[in-house]
Amino acid sequence: MTKKIDTANPDIAVFTRKLNEFKQLIDADISTYSRQITKNTRKQYGPYAQIEIDAFLSILGRGGKRIRGALVMLGYEMSGGTNKAMIIEAARVVEMIHAYILIIDDIQDRSRIRRGGPAAHMLLSEYHSQHSLSSNSDHFGISIAMNSALAGAHAAQMLLTNLDVDQQLRLNTIAILNRTMLVTAHGQTNDIMNEVLAEVSQKDIETVLEWKTAHYTFLNPLHMGMVLAGADCDATDAISNYAIHAGKAFQITDDILGVFGNEFESGKSPLDDIREGKRTVLTVNALENTDDGNKNFLIQMLGNDHLTRAEFDRCKDIIIEAGSLDYAKKRAIHHINQAVESLDGVDYWSEDGLAFLRGLAVSLLNRHS
Questions:
Q1: In the prediction, which pLDDT does 9 show?
Q2: Under DSSP, is residue 110 helix (H, G, I), strand (E, B) or coil?
Q3: Which among 168, 157, 172 is positioned nearest to 89, based on CA atoms?
Q4: How many helices and strands in the chain, by DSSP H and E?
């Protein structure tokens, strides 16, 4: 039987407070970095390079909760790290990598909106149109956006190689990040394949939850922060079970928010996941547990570029009536419970750090963004 999550847990207050503190530090650092890189890019590479960098910085600067950067800082802090300036820079690296991934993801998902503004390729397509440039504006937007993402990713790698930390720790951290990005690439490929295969199982979805989200959003930043503080393999192994389960819960709640939230909450159009044909815990379970008429309709709508609001609303009704929304919430609760329980009896880290992790896991149940 699934254990009920106590959303009044005092750990949530610790998580909220510390996340806000981390976010303020990261946002301020990114703002300073963005001003510097804007000035240097124009001076060294000219106005065309500035177009590319502006698109990257636009996505980087839109913020969000900065959960990945915050987990870098938390992993470092709760493992005894004290170099605040260095770890803020490491958090910036992870947020830059995230901006790079978002730009690529929006191209692959054909998303037009990111965090309440145009996706990078849409910004650049608009630039092409506004300046009456020759050739195709959509192709231009995608082409420069890909360059923008690559420039940002390699700039992040350069920052990582110059962190003010022991050389071996720096090399270990570089290895962790690159291994994670390899796993993430395989997770994204599986996610895309799930959109085009006739049959997709819940096991296929679990693989994507782990490879695409859990490693990238939770395991990687925690391990990076911990290793930069000098944590050993026993300590990094001890956090892995938490990270995998919390990451899976994060993605399930993200998929729920993507369909049942609104654009302000999710930062993208709620139609995107259905229009894209994304297979999630929600949609796969609905296909398995609805009648043939609704199943055929849902199959036709998944991947429909011309999905209407009325069709989208019917898809939501099918998901609810099939019991799939409740099923997805129960799966999220299961992973949240597993994440919290994995921290029981662990004495590697500070109590404040453990409270943050417990609060983060529990807070996923009531995500709004």
A1: 75
A2: coil
A3: 157
A4: 17, 2
CA distance 92 to 109: 25
Other Cβ atoms closer than 10 A to 206: 14
d(CA 37, CA 315): 44
Q: Can you give the pTM of this predicted structure?
A: 0.91
Q: Collapsing DSSP states into helix, strand and coil, what is residue 280?
A: coil
Strands 117-118 and 113-114: antiparallel
Residue numbers in the chain where pLDDT is lower than 70: 1-8, 263-268, 368-369
The amino acid at residue 66 is R
DSSP state of 5: P
Give me 250's structure tokens.
């994060």
Find all residues with CB under 8 Å of 195, minimum gap 6, and list them.
276, 277, 278, 279, 302, 303
Interatomic CA distance for residues 365 and 247, integer angstroms: 13
Per residue in 160-173, pLDDT (tens digit) is 999 999 999 999 99
pLDDT of residue 304: 92
- For 96-253, strand residue ranges (E) read 113-114, 117-118
CA distance 16 to 28: 18
CB neighbours of 199 closer than 8 A, spacing ≥ 6? none
Looking at residue 269, what is its pLDDT?
A: 77
Cα 252 to its chain centre, rounded Å, is 12
- 10 Å Cβ neighbour count for 366? 10
DSSP assignments along 260-327, one per residue: HS-HHHHSS-TTHHHHHT---HHHHHHHHSS-HHHHHHHHHHTT-TT--HHHHHHHHHHHHHTTHHHH
Q: CA angle, corner 365, sides to 360 and 369, nearest 5?
A: 80
